[in-house]
Design a protein that fits this description.
mainly beta; Immunoglobulin-like; 4-stranded antiparallel beta sheet; 1 helix; 15% helix; 44% strand
């Protein structure tokens, strides 16, 4: 076998191997949970309101916190109430987590624990990630 035909055979084998093995991606949807994490400059937050859009959300849970949700304007408006800390405040259950990049989460309001007075949103953020 010449050098050129050996190279051709190696490339053909590699392409055939990749076609047979495929990728590690699941063929179908990847349903499951994603975690919403609050970043806060304060230690006495008592509630947040945020809006999730970009795709379907099957349900929302919030562990030890109370959660209220409603479908509006092509998304879900969510209120989480409780002793909030800079950590996971809610869990979104999605029908296909492969589409996570299509989703947007917008923090709309933050309230002080006890009085529920509105706070400035400066220094706050929400992130969404797989747990």
């Amino acid at each position: 076998m010449t050098g050129r035909s050996a190279l051709f055979a190696a490339i053909a084998f590699t392409l055939l191997w990749q076609a047979c093995v495929g990728t590690n991606e699941p063929d179908g949807p990847d349903p499951g949970a994603v975690s919403v994490t609050l970043s806060t400059p304060n230690s006495n937050d008592g509630g947040v309101r945020f809006f999730v859009s970009g795709g379907p959300v099957d349900s929302i849970s919030a562990g030890a916190h109370d959660v209220f949700q409603t479908d509006v304007d092509g998304g879900k408006r969510v209120i989480v109430i409780g002793s909030l800390a800079p950590s996971g405040i809610a869990t979104l259950w999605m029908p296909d987590r492969r589409n996570m990049d299509d989703y947007q989460i917008i923090l709309e309001e933050v309230a002080v624990r006890g009085t529920f007075a509105n706070r400035s949103l400066n220094g706050y953020s929400l992130t969404v990630a797989r747990p």
